[in-house]
Structures are given as structure tokens and as C-alpha cells.
């Protein structure tokens, strides 16, 4: 019969058969009110040397049991008659390497019967379970933190901070060197992580260069704390170092770095399961860091490749104001199939060439073709006075390329004469530019022509337009007029609305015209999808700065 | 700061503001730049010029437009001039500064065109030596996050002026926090007391640029990523899907209101297509604000907007009580949606009170 495990209450029978528990597989000790052992069974005698009838509990029993017995006989409510229940608390303690639960119950004449139950296995299982739970929680939290960022610095700081909090007293993350310096993150448990750049030879720290190379795979290495270079000690870490482990952070084919764990003197060395746990953490941190590194490399490449595809910043050239605005269709790519450029004239008396166009399609594929067209147009600028010839050459170049896409565009040669701006405009299959007069009239430039890159011959008609001071010529792509939305949700913005909006922009600076049209189109769209939208405003400045004493006091103006 | 700081009295600032206002309303960019640069030459501190001269003048542009004393064109011209004046100020030799560690990303919420408040903050931070990435107006959230991954900014200062952008702002705030970067919210959209910034879980809110700079200097703690917070945790009321419904069927609601108004008021049949479109736009704005009221579950949002609209309409000699039938039709259309009905009832009562106190005939439309 197993003793009652949970309950510390036992009903005492009239004639307790002392023989019954003598054979019990659990150790049993009976002691009286004076603390003298009265009876023991074989299991108890085997467990505890010297516990024999007549011996004092304080002399022979483990101290926790002797104390519990003393408490029980002093404080416990001794039942007045057998059969009456008395409640005694059970206690826990160690005997040798084993852990026991001791359940007391009242015997005859105020004696206490101690039933000892070995719960070592259960205790170990409980401890292991709670450690595993803590680790699982930590790994889940670590994953949340590490997966959040694709920024290498932030990943390194998070790795150091997490490692210092759970795995060691302090942690250092070393990333592979970029150039001559290695990025390093330091963290002390309970403090913010800090970063630094270290110019030192990693091979001076045993195991570090191997860990940084990421190949071949090396296990964590225990190193002598005295070999640590000064830069490895985090600021705020005091006291002597007891143990140091260098753990590689495994990456996806790219070295992710190394994690160095520091424990202060006096704290236990890493156990095998702690080492395993550190490796599990290192695997997650390494995966996050290498993903961040890959992302950084990829976005560097993208940035470099995209630099020439981005729309240029426009400004005043040879006395003419230029302003541009661009909204690509996709929220993800900053480039698309619309493009514009201003190629300044060599001198004030040479016209500048403006080109704005739209390649069939959108996204990166279209953007790549805009790059080619823009380069070709730039190469053709020496013949900018002959738009027809430029278009013919451009058409030939596009037909001969392997792209099957075509494009529409507008060319504008822009020359300032006195206070006027003279424009020669040629549309190749593109919406005609709009001119905003100072009185609010909006005129469509009467130019039209065939698109380029589709047919063997192109034709186009150019037109001359003069701008008075304050007047603007707007080149735009059909993404603006084909914006779908409005208060009712499904209408096109349309040319009429564009012209009406422009009419309200009479006399505005070019930048304000572009901003206003972009804003109206964007409001029209609400949250709807749209095509690429590009705008260029060519404006004859309203006032001309003739002389200025030091560049920024007010000079004389002509209107 | 190492810029020579001269105490500029309020009178001096007021004089500068008047001069700048004159130049801006005159659309005279050179005169405007002249006012600002002369002030810097005279030793006025650049931050004072930005925040006590340029910012109030720009705010006045907005209020004057609302009062119908400035045209939309003048408003745009004023912004364009302010942009260039700020650029000129940044190049002035007196604005050289000592760099300090720390990088801040300043951006406007997607579809937010009011760039000036963010621009001013970016300039003041630059003056104080911070590394600043100014991403400008209407930054799509994916661009903002891509930027944060590559730049390693310690905080994002997010600006929004229009409260209709609040759902987008919420998406941006949670996205920044999800990559571990705290967000400082600012701008009129977040409410005069910052209540919407708190509601949407921003890590900090500043009513003005100076407070923003101080909060950033004190440091804004990074969000705790370990918890794994999600967007819907902030706004449990979204579970009823009313916001989703109203936002999605916006165009349909506007059309329905327009049709019913035309039946009620035969005079509308004589409207030109342009007038009709204006009316549709006004209705669309009311539906937009109702939707954001549902998103924030805030009773005051729609009334505040209607109060402002009533002022705008009155300034343009349009009777403000013309809003009332719009609310009535919307309430009837959305009768199955308890929160929408609550917000519309609340707005109706508030507007009645406003109209009554302004001496208008409230109640039944003419």
C-alpha cells in the first residue's frame, strides 16, 4: 500500500499494527514527543545510518527532518483520543543525493510517524521542465526580436542584449570585418547594448577567426580569460571573468559573425545543456544576421543599379524654371515606365532640351528601357535643334534593340530671350503639353506625331509656343489623366479636370503647379491603384533678379 | 548648439512675421528670402526664424485660406516659397553646426501632402547636429520600412496633418515598431492633445517642433519586440468590420446620398456638372471622416470636422445647414451599423448646437 502522498491527514486506528508498515517499501520512522526514535522499518534503517530506536532525532536524523519533528510535537495539535484527526504539514529535504518528501501522521501517545517518499526523479523532471519552458519562451522571444529587423546593426545589438540576459553575464557579437574594422556589439546583462568599430586582428583571440570565417564549422571554444583583448570587455562589466566561450554564428553561406559569452568568476561554468542551448540561440541569431547582411548587400546593389533610373532633381537652368514630379505605380519600386530629363543648353543662348516620356508597361522592366531611351536622347542632344531627326534616330535605335516595347514622348527645346521663354514642342504619340496663361486660359500645344519604337517611320509636327513671365508649360504623362477614382469612386481624372485645375494655377511658380496637380490627382485616386505619373513644368520666371548686392538682399526686378 | 544665439524679442519676431507675410502673399520669393536672410545676418538664431517666423506665417496661410481670404493658388505659392526660403536658410553660414551622434528619419504618412511641419522639424534637428533622413511628403509605408532597414535610424518622426490619414498612419506606426524602431508622432491629425497618437500606439507625441526635439534628445525607448504586438490589439472595436464596410463602399454611399439629395431638393437638378462634383466631394469628405471616426471609435472626430466645414462653408456664403440632410441620409443608409448610427447621431446633435449658437436656423433643411 502506498502512503498517502497529497494528504497530510491520516485517520488513526484504535490498534495501529506496527507490523504493517515495518514491511512497507517506504522508509518509516516513528519518534515520540521527546524527540527519541521509537521505531524504524528496514527501509529507513537502510537509508539513514544510526536511526535506531532510542536514538535522538536531532543526533541521527537529517536536520530538516529533526526540526520538522520538533515543530510537530511542540506546535502540532495532539489528538486527545485515537481516531481523532490531527493535521501535520509535510516537509521536503535531501538525504544524501536524494530528495524526499516526509509525510507525518499521529501515532499513539503523541508519537509522530514519518513516512518518507523519494521524489528525486519528480523533482529533477520538474526542474528540467521549467528550464525547458524558460528556454522555449526565450527562444520564441528571441525569434520575435531577431526576425523583426533586416538591419545588421540592430540585429547585432539585439543578439548581444539577448545573449547577455539569458546565456551569460556579458556578451560580445563580432561581425566579419568590412575593410579594416570589425563591427562589434557589447552588452552587459540588464544594460543597453552598445556598438563599436574595432581595428584589431581577430586571430589574436583563439577561435575567433575560425568562427568569423564561418567555415569549416567549428564548435564553441573555451578560452583562457587572460587571452582576451581589452576591446572585448564591455563597458560596465566589472569583476574578474570566470569563463569565456567563443561560438560561431552560422549563416546561410555567408559568415554571420561570432558570439562571445562571458561569465564572471563564481558563476557556474556552462553545462552541456547550456552549451546546446547557446548553440540553438546562435543558430537563430546567425540566420537573422545573415538575412540582414544579404538584404543590405541586395539593397546596395539595387540602389547602385537604380541610381541612374531615378528621376532627376530639376532646378532653374539658364533663366528658365524647371520643376518635376514623379509617382511610380508600385509602392515598392521607386522607378517606373515614365521618365523625364532636362539637358541644359551649353550657354544662355543655346536652348535646353527637355524630354518627358512613357514606356509601355510599368515597374522595373519598363524602368530599364527608360534608362536606354534617356541615354540615347542624351547622346542625341547635339542635334537637339532638329526634333524630327532625333525622333527618327531614336526610333531606329529602339527598333534595333531586343525590346519589344514602344514609347511615347515629348521633346521641348527651351530658350530664354529677354523676359520671354520660347519653346519648341514635339509630341511623339504623347498627350500634348498644356500651357497656362497668366489670365487662367489653358491652351493645348498643337503638336502630334507617331510613337517611337513600333513603326519603321515616324512623323511628328512641332509647334512654337512663347511663355510670358509667370506662364507655365506643363508636360505630363497619361497616368495623371487616367487616374481613376473621385468622390464616386470610378471616374477618370480626365483632360478636362486637368485643364480646369491648371487654370487655377495661373501665375504660380512651376514647383507649386506640379505639387498642386500631383496633389489633386492623388486625392482623386484616394487609395486606388494608378499608373506611373510624371510631370514637368517649364516656367518663365515672374520676376527676374537683375542685381543683388550680396546675393540675398533684395535687388531690382523686372516683371 | 554653436550658432550665435541672440535673444529675439517677441516684437522683433512679430515684425519679421509681418514682413514675411507681406512677401509671401505678394508671391515674392526673393523678398521672402531677403527677410529671412537679413534676420540671420542680424544675428537672429536660425531655429527662431524657422519656428517663430516661418512656421506661424505658414499656419496663417492655412487659416486665411479657411476664411476665404486667400485662394488655393496663393496657398500653394506660399508653400513653394516657404520651401525655397528654408532651403536658402539652410545654406546661410550662421547655420553651421557641430554634428552629434544619432540618426532620425523624418517622414510624412502616405498621401499626406502637408510637408512643411515635417520639413521644419527636419531642419531644426539638422541645426542641432542630428543626422537626419528627410523622406518628404507622402512616403509609402514600404519605402519607409525599406529605408529603416538600410539606414539604422534610431527613431522615426512621423507627420500627418489630415486626420483622414490616421488609418494609414496606424499602419506606418505599427510597421516601424515591428522592425524595432520607435515612432514619434506629430501634426494636426493626431489631435490637439495627441489622443490619436496614443490610441494608435505611437511611442511618443509632440505638439510642436521644440517638444519633438526635446523628446528625441531625451531618447524614446524602442518598442518591446519580444511581445509580438499586432495592429488589431490597439483597436479591438475594429472587429465589428464597420470601418471596413464604410471605407469600402465609400463611392456607393456618396452616390446614394447624392441621389437622395436630388430627390429632396429639386434645385439640385439645375447644378452644373462641376457643382455636382463639388457636392459629391463634400459628401465624400464627410464619409471619409465618418470612416476614420469608426476606425478610432472617437465621438468627437466627425463633429470637429463638421464644425470646421461649417466655418469654411459660411466663409464662402454657403449655408452650413446643408450638411444636415447628408447626415440624415447617411444615418438611414447605415441604420444596421450601430457604431455608425451612434457617431452620426452625435455629429448631428453637435452640429445642431453649433448652428443654433451661430444664429442659424437649425433643423429642417430649406
UniProtKB/TrEMBL annotation, chain A:
Residues 317-540 form the PPM-type phosphatase domain. Its EC number is 3.1.3.16. GO terms for molecular function: protein serine/threonine phosphatase activity. Residues 134-299 form the GAF domain. Pfam families: SpoIIE. It is an enzyme of class 3 (hydrolase). Keywords: Hydrolase. This is PP2C family protein-serine/threonine phosphatase. It comes from Streptomyces mutomycini.
Amino acid at each position: 500500500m502506498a502512503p498517502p502522498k497529497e494528504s497530510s491527514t491520516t485517520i488513526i486506528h484504535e490498534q495501529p499494527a506496527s507490523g504493517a508498515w515495518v514491511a512497507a517499501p517506504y522508509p518509516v520512522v516513528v519518534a515520540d514527543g521527546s524527540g527519541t526514535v521509537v521505531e524504524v522499518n528496514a527501509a529507513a534503517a537502510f537509508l539513514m545510518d544510526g536511526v535506531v530506536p532510542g536514538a535522538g532525532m536531532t543526533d541521527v536524523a537529517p536536520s530538516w527532518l529533526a526540526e520538522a519533528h520538533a515543530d510537530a510535537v511542540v506546535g502540532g495539535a495532539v489528538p486527545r483520543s485515537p481516531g481523532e484527526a490531527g493535521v501535520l504539514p509535510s516537509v521536503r529535504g535531501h538525504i544524501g543525493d536524494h530528495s524526499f518528501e516526509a509525510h507525518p501522521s499521529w501515532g499513539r501517545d503523541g508519537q509522530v510517524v514519518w513516512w518518507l517518499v523519494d521524489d528525486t526523479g519528480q523533482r529533477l523532471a520538474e526542474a528540467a521542465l521549467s528550464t525547458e519552458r524558460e528556454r522555449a519562451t526565450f527562444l520564441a522571444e528571441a525569434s520575435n526580436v531577431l526576425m523583426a529587423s533586416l538591419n545588421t546593426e540592430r540585429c547585432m545589438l539585439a543578439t548581444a542584449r539577448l545573449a547577455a540576459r539569458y546565456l551569460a553575464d556579458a556578451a560580445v557579437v563580432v561581425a566579419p570585418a568590412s575593410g579594416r574594422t570589425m563591427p562589434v556589439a557589447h552588452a552587459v546583462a540588464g544594460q543597453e547594448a552598445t556598438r563599436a568599430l574595432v581595428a584589431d586582428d581577430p586571430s589574436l583571440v583563439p577561435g575567433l577567426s575560425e568562427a568569423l570565417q564561418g567555415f569549416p564549422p567549428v564548435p564553441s571554444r573555451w578560452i583562457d580569460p587572460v587571452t582576451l583583448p581589452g576591446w572585448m570587455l564591455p563597458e560596465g562589466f566589472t569583476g574578474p571573468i570566470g569563463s569565456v566561450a567563443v561560438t560561431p554564428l552560422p549563416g546561410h553561406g555567408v559568415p554571420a559573425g561570432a558570439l562571445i559569452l562571458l561569465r564572471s568568476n563564481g558563476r557556474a561554468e556552462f553545462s552541456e545543456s547550456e552549451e546546446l542551448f547557446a548553440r540553438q540561440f546562435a543558430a537563430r541569431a546567425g540566420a537573422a544576421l545573415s538575412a540582414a547582411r544579404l538584404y543590405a548587400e541586395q539593397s546596395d546593389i539595387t540602389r547602385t543599379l537604380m541610381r541612374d533610373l531615378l528621376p532627376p532633381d530639376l532646378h532653374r537652368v539658364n533663366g528658365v524654371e524647371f520643376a518635376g514630379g514623379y509617382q511610380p505605380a508600385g509602392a515598392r519600386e521607386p522607378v517606373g515606365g515614365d521618365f523625364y530629363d532636362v539637358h541644359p543648353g551649353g550657354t544662355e543662348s543655346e536652348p535646353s532640351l527637355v524630354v518627358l516620356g512613357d514606356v509601355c508597361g510599368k515597374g522595373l522592366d519598363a524602368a530599364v528601357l527608360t534608362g536606354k531611351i534617356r541615354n540615347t536622347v542624351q547622346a542625341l542632344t547635339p542635334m537637339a535643334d532638329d526634333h524630327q531627326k532625333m525622333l527618327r534616330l531614336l526610333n531606329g535605335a529602339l527598333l534595333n534593340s531586343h525590346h519589344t516595347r514602344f514609347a511615347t514622348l515629348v521633346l521641348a527645346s527651351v530658350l530664354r530671350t529677354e523676359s520671354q521663354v520660347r519653346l519648341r514642342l514635339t509630341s511623339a504619340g504623347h498627350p500634348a503639353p498644356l500651357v497656362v496663361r497668366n489670365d487662367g486660359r489653358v491652351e493645348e500645344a498643337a503638336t502630334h506625331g507617331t510613337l517611337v519604337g513600333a513603326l519603321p517611320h515616324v512623323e511628328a509636327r512641332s509647334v512654337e509656343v512663347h511663355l510670358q513671365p509667370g506662364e507655365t508649360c506643363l508636360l505630363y504623362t497619361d497616368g495623371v489623366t487616367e487616374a481613376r477614382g473621385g468622390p464616386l469612386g470610378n471616374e477618370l481624372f480626365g483632360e478636362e479636370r486637368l485643364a480646369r485645375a491648371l487654370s487655377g494655377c495661373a501665375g504660380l511658380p512651376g514647383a507649386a503647379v506640379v505639387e498642386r496637380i500631383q496633389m489633386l490627382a492623388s486625392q482623386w485616386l484616394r487609395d486606388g491603384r494608378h499608373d506611373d505619373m510624371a510631370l514637368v513644368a517649364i516656367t518663365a520666371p515672374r520676376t527676374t533678379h537683375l542685381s543683388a548686392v550680396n546675393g540675398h538682399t533684395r535687388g531690382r526686378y523686372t516683371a | 548648439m554653436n550658432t550665435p544665439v541672440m535673444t529675439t524679442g517677441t516684437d522683433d519676431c512679430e515684425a519679421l512675421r509681418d514682413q514675411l507675410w507681406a512677401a509671401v502673399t505678394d508671391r515674392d520669393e526673393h523678398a521672402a528670402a531677403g527677410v529671412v536672410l537679413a534676420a540671420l545676418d542680424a544675428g537672429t538664431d536660425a531655429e527662431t526664424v524657422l519656428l517663430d517666423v516661418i512656421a506661424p506665417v505658414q499656419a496663417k496661410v492655412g487659416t486665411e485660406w479657411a476664411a476665404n481670404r486667400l485662394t488655393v493658388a496663393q496657398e500653394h505659392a506660399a508653400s513653394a516659397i516657404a520651401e525655397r526660403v528654408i532651403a536658402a536658410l539652410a545654406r546661410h553660414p550662421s547655420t553651421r553646426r557641430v554634428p552629434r551622434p544619432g540618426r532620425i528619419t523624418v517622414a510624412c504618412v502616405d498621401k499626406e501632402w502637408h510637408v512643411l511641419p515635417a520639413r521644419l522639424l527636419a531642419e531644426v534637428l539638422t541645426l542641432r547636429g542630428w543626422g537626419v533622413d528627410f523622406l518628404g511628403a507622402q512616403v509609402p509605408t514600404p519605402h519607409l520600412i525599406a529605408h529603416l532597414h538600410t539606414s539604422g535610424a534610431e527613431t522615426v518622426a512621423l507627420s500627418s496633418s489630415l486626420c483622414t490619414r490616421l488609418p494609414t498612419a496606424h499602419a506606418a506606426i505599427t510597421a516601424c515598431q515591428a522592425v524595432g524602431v520607435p515612432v514619434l508622432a506629430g501634426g494636426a491629425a493626431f489631435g490637439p492633445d495627441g489622443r490619436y497618437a496614443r490610441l494608435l500606439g505611437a511611442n511618443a507625441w509632440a505638439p510642436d517642433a521644440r517638444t519633438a526635439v526635446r523628446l528625441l534628445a531625451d531618447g524614446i525607448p524602442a518598442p518591446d519586440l519580444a511581445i509580438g504586438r499586432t495592429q488589431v490589439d490597439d483597436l479591438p472595436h475594429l472587429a465589428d468590420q464597420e470601418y471596413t464596410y464604410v471605407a469600402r463602399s465609400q463611392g456607393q454611399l456618396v452616390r446614394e446620398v447624392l441621389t437622395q439629395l436630388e430627390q429632396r431638393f429639386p434645385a439640385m437638378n439645375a447644378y452644373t456638372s462641376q457643382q455636382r462634383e463639388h457636392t459629391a466631394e463634400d459628401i465624400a469628405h464627410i464619409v471619409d471622416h465618418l470612416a476614420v471616426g469608426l476606425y478610432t471609435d472617437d465621438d468627437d472626430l466627425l463633429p470637429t470636422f463638421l464644425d470646421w466645414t461649417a466655418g469654411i462653408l459660411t466663409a464662402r456664403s454657403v449655408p452650413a445647414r446643408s450638411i444636415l440632410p447628408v447626415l440624415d441620409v447617411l444615418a438611414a443608409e447605415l441604420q444596421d451599423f450601430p457604431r455608425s448610427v451612434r457617431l452620426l447621431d452625435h455629429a448631428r446633435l453637435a452640429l445642431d448646437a453649433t448652428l443654433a449658437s451661430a444664429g442659424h436656423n437649425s433643423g429642417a433643411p430649406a
